[in-house]
């Protein structure tokens, strides 16, 4: 026992020293030093993650295409608010080395729960070292095809990893892709939305409306958006299962208030698509035996600080909203933010697209996003930035939107240009590797 504690302390010290060094000198990476400490520890001991994780009672993975960072952070925040000692990779470093760093730095002898956002393409690699007790699956959309392959390939890979394991699955029953995993796991639980709750402005991007078991066309009673809805297969019987945890009412004012299993929850979160993230977090917290009163403590005070529907305001009361988008479904969500804005308010957009490895080198997904959503908004102008700004501008040209489109590849200069537009609402949509720099420059510019 003493040896284990000494080893954990040694790893903790090494991680902290490396992380501090990176954050002081840090031009080498753009993730605040979250990956390199773990990489160094793995060089010292290839089984470091297995050894660091031995004493946890619960190891919980939060994964899927969209919403895993928000869901993971909301869960972690809520547990901390009621005094639970946890590990949570809240900075979003969701691959192997980032997870090693988070556990090594935060873990103590009193820490018994790990809430880990996990990159869906990294599940296989991570599960070589640790087996979770629970996994929350939010949704599956096409994302970084050059890394993950098509959705069928990704789900098949995940299935191989979780089959015949003693893992409880918390599944979005509204997503037929997610429900393909239901044949695995033990005592699985399901979450979903009741029909006719809200007009999600579905733009027709549909990953698949075919049965994952027999390939027959699914029969949809109701569609929330894309392939999420209430469905069944008339041929083989595959269907949406009744949720253990469901939303029966949504109020946006503009913050989200929702009714889950007859209990009303108040939040400071924005964007109706966050309803699924709130519901996923609630489902997991109930499985950890938290009461509704304990959950409300976290939900009512949580504020996003990671570029997911994060709001800034300048001295002239002009608003800036940053929301990450890295695939067609995520882009459509972000483009829909201003759909209900009053016509007398002017809107400007800043769209930022990089093609670094972590983004996915293939940016063809922008042609699947429905930029035509913008045609019905009172847009003053659109600025395209990032390494692939020109491709974004070309994509916008094909929407035939009658607004001025600027191309400014440098993010700092693009934000300066945006600020000087003096629009009432400024919507900034960066993809993954552009997010941190974008947020930093917005904060600097608005000081």
From TrEMBL:
Zn(2+) binds at residues 211, 214, 233, 236. Pathway: Cell wall biogenesis; peptidoglycan biosynthesis. Its EC number is 6.3.5.13. InterPro entries: Lipid_II_synth_MurT (IPR043703), Mur-like_cat_sf (IPR036565), Mur_ligase_cen (IPR013221), MurT_C (IPR013564). It catalyses: beta-D-GlcNAc-(1->4)-Mur2Ac(oyl-L-Ala-gamma-D-Glu-L-Lys-D-Ala-D-Ala)-di-trans,octa-cis-undecaprenyl diphosphate + ATP = beta-D-GlcNAc-(1->4)-Mur2Ac(oyl-L-Ala-gamma-D-O-P-Glu-L-Lys-D-Ala-D-Ala)-di-trans,octa-cis-undecaprenyl diphosphate + ADP; beta-D-GlcNAc-(1->4)-Mur2Ac(oyl-L-Ala-gamma-D-Glu-L-Lys-D-Ala-D-Ala)-di-trans,octa-cis-undecaprenyl diphosphate + L-glutamine + ATP + H2O = beta-D-GlcNAc-(1->4)-Mur2Ac(oyl-L-Ala-D-isoglutaminyl-L-Lys-D-Ala-D-Ala)-di-trans,octa-cis-undecaprenyl diphosphate + L-glutamate + ADP + phosphate + H(+); beta-D-GlcNAc-(1->4)-Mur2Ac(oyl-L-Ala-gamma-D-O-P-Glu-L-Lys-D-Ala-D-Ala)-di-trans,octa-cis-undecaprenyl diphosphate + NH4(+) = beta-D-GlcNAc-(1->4)-Mur2Ac(oyl-L-Ala-D-isoglutaminyl-L-Lys-D-Ala-D-Ala)-di-trans,octa-cis-undecaprenyl diphosphate + phosphate + H(+). PANTHER family: LIPID II ISOGLUTAMINYL SYNTHASE (GLUTAMINE-HYDROLYZING) SUBUNIT MURT, MUR LIGASE FAMILY MEMBER. Forms a heterodimer with GatD. Residues 324-435 form the Lipid II isoglutaminyl synthase (glutamine-hydrolyzing) subunit MurT C-terminal domain. GO terms for molecular function: ligase activity. Pfam families: Mur_ligase_M, MurT_C. The lipid II isoglutaminyl synthase complex catalyzes the formation of alpha-D-isoglutamine in the cell wall lipid II stem peptide. The MurT subunit catalyzes the ATP-dependent amidation of D-glutamate residue of lipid II, converting it to an isoglutamine residue. Belongs to the MurCDEF family. MurT subfamily. Residues 62-283 form the Mur ligase central domain. It comes from Gemelliphila asaccharolytica. The active site is at 362. This is Lipid II isoglutaminyl synthase (glutamine-hydrolyzing) subunit MurT. Keywords: ATP-binding, Cell shape, Cell wall biogenesis/degradation, Ligase, Metal-binding, Nucleotide-binding, Peptidoglycan synthesis, Zinc.
